[in-house]
TrEMBL record:
It comes from Amycolatopsis albidoflavus. InterPro entries: Alkaline_phosphatase_core_sf (IPR017850), Phosphodiest/P_Trfase (IPR002591). This is Alkaline phosphatase family protein. Coiled coil: none annotated. It comes from the Bacteria. Transmembrane segments: none annotated. It holds the Pfam family Phosphodiest. SUPFAM superfamilies: Alkaline phosphatase-like.
């Protein structure tokens, strides 16, 4: 326990709360358990080391499949997988909704993309998503805490029953911890990367009092957007970190209106994720070294996150909130591959156009088979034809495809079976997600990628997430205020939601997904 003593001397740990009145949830997107292990071992005086050494650490935590940001974050605040939440990705397809922009619904055939990304913003090129604030980007803290007003309703799918747009919060099938906390009289706040994260307010639309969502894919001062240079991503994350500090101090995210420290609040970090994905940033290599340790850009991102976490814990102590606040640190998703030599980049466009051409050739007059594709390091396809014949046709076609992609150096690299190990199609795809066949949201085909495969044209990224690989799913999960316990049992990030409610002395079964899936609070906390 010498290392723990060193940590305590360098960065005082949060004491176990006498009574938890506040939960600060932090999602460090892309962070693996192996990254946290490496960082705490090599930086024993760090804030992250203090959090792990004096908290309860779950060494085998996994995020849901698909391991994308939307299902990953929704899991943490609902306790549910896509089977109960209905959230498979940020860009999907729904056969029961009408296309965006539909204003006269009579006679319109159902079937619509559901795009809950930056594409919804009034102005996706502005960090305030089109609010029209002066002095951007640094003036972004004046952004509204109700970003629903920044969503363009004409970009939303339409409910055929009401002929009205379906906002993200209306698309979520189950309630969230924010709704339960608000119903109990607690204030809530959250900071995330797109206005579409108003989904986290839950079906009521009122779960989050103060939602700060600067647009990460907007134009940054020094690059095409905030994700294309890691120093820009750190600057972007810094705005959200400042919002959290303001909330710790009892203000709203802007720091201008006194509101009281929220009962449930927090943010997501993007800096680690972009550092893992970028081949180069600032002239330095992104991602990992051949031995699996973080390279210079990723180290810088980890240092940045550590400083912010240290700032939060210091401010909690300064405000005498350390004995009433529990910090939970995890990640929406990991990133794959960690090993640079495993990378195989495959352009999925020729695979999908080939599938469509083959289908049309075999079925003259038929439309393209693929209605929507979402391919990062997994393949999710929605079809215009849901017959067993179509499902088997697509499965066999993809598994027969071979070609040449490129590796981490850009050199040609052959692939087989379209880069997939397994393909679930039709009823097998529904069974994979444990939903009934015919569900209007479930993909018609789920392709499990070979280790290291990333579906991308060109050489713009060296890692991705969204799949079922260990690199995608093995994320850290630490709850502050323990005694350095390291729990080896397998847990899921869905268990964060009922844990938050239990810490606040609220009923975990107030969450619909907890009741539906039987999601248990995290073990070993003894609170």
């Amino acid at each position: 326990m010498a290392a723990a003593g060193t940590v305590a001397a360098a960065v005082p740990a949060l004491a176990a709360p006498v009574r938890t009145e506040h939960v600060l949830l932090l999602s460090v997107d892309g962070l693996h358990q192996s990254d946290l292990d490496w960082y705490t071992r090599t930086h024993p005086g760090s804030a992250l080391a203090a959090l792990a050494a004096h908290g309860t650490e779950y060494a085998h935590a996994n995020t849901p499949v698909p391991s994308d940001s939307f299902p990953g974050m929704v899991a943490q605040v609902t306790g549910g997988n896509p089977a109960s939440t209905g959230i498979y990705y940020d860009a999907t397809y729904n056969r029961a909704l009408l296309p965006a922009g539909t204003t006269s619904c009579a006679g319109v055939k159902p079937g619509s993309t559901v795009d809950y990304t930056e594409d919804l913003d009034r102005n996706m090129n502005a960090i305030d998503a089109g609010q029209g604030l002066p002095n951007l980007p640094d003036g972004v803290l004046a952004m509204t805490g109700n970003p629903r007003s920044l969503i363009n309703p004409a970009a939303l799918p339409v409910d055929p029953k009401t002929c009205k747009p379906v906002y993200p919060h209306q698309y979520l099938r189950v309630n969230t911890v924010f709704e339960v906390a608000r119903q109990a009289g607690l204030r809530t706040a959250w900071s995330d990367k797109h206005p579409a994260y108003e989904m986290l307010s839950g079906p009521s639309g009122s779960g989050i009092d103060d939602l700060f969502t600067p647009e990460i894919n907007s134009k940054a001062p020094s690059s095409s957007d905030w994700t294309k240079d890691n120093s820009a991503t750190q600057r972007y994350d810094g705005y959200k970190a400042k919002a959290v500090l303001n909330e710790i101090d009892g203000f709203d995210h802007s720091g201008q209106t006194r509101a009281g420290t929220p009962g449930v609040f927090g943010m997501n970090f993007q800096s680690v994720s972009t550092a893992q994905k970028l081949p180069l940033s600032g002239g330095q290599p992104g991602g990992y070294r051949p031995d699996g340790t973080p390279g210079p850009v990723l180290q810088s991102a980890l240092d940045f996150v550590d400083r912010q976490v240290g700032g939060f814990t210091a401010e909690l102590r300064n405000r005498h909130l350390d004995r009433s606040t529990t910090v939970i640190l995890s990640a929406k998703h990991g990133q794959s591959p960690i090993d640079p030599s495993a990378l195989t980049r495959i352009d999925d466009a020729p695979l999908l156009s080939g599938l469509n051409a083959a289908w049309r050739a075999a079925h003259p007059g038929a439309p393209d088979l693929v209605a929507q594709s979402t391919d990062d390091d997994a393949m999710l396809l929605w079809f215009t034809d849901r017959s067993p014949e179509a499902a088997e046709f697509a499965r066999q076609y993809l598994l027969a495809q071979s070609g040449t992609g490129n590796g981490s150096t850009g050199a040609p690299k052959p692939f087989t079976h379209a880069g997939l190990t397994t393909v679930y199609a039709g009823t097998d795809a529904a069974r994979y997600f444990q939903v009934r066949p015919g569900d209007p949201r479930v993909p018609d085909l789920v392709g499990i990628a070979q280790h290291g495969v990333v579906y991308t044209g060109g050489h713009s990224k060296i890692a991705e997430h969204g799949g079922a690989a260990a690199d995608d799913r093995a994320v850290p999960l630490v709850v502050s205020g323990g005694h350095g316990a390291r729990i080896p049992a397998a847990v899921e990030t869905t268990q964060i939601a009922p844990t938050i409610l239990r810490l606040l002395n609220l009923d975990p079964r107030a969450l619909q997904a907890v009741r539906e899936e039987g999601t248990a609070p995290l073990p070993g906390l003894g609170r």
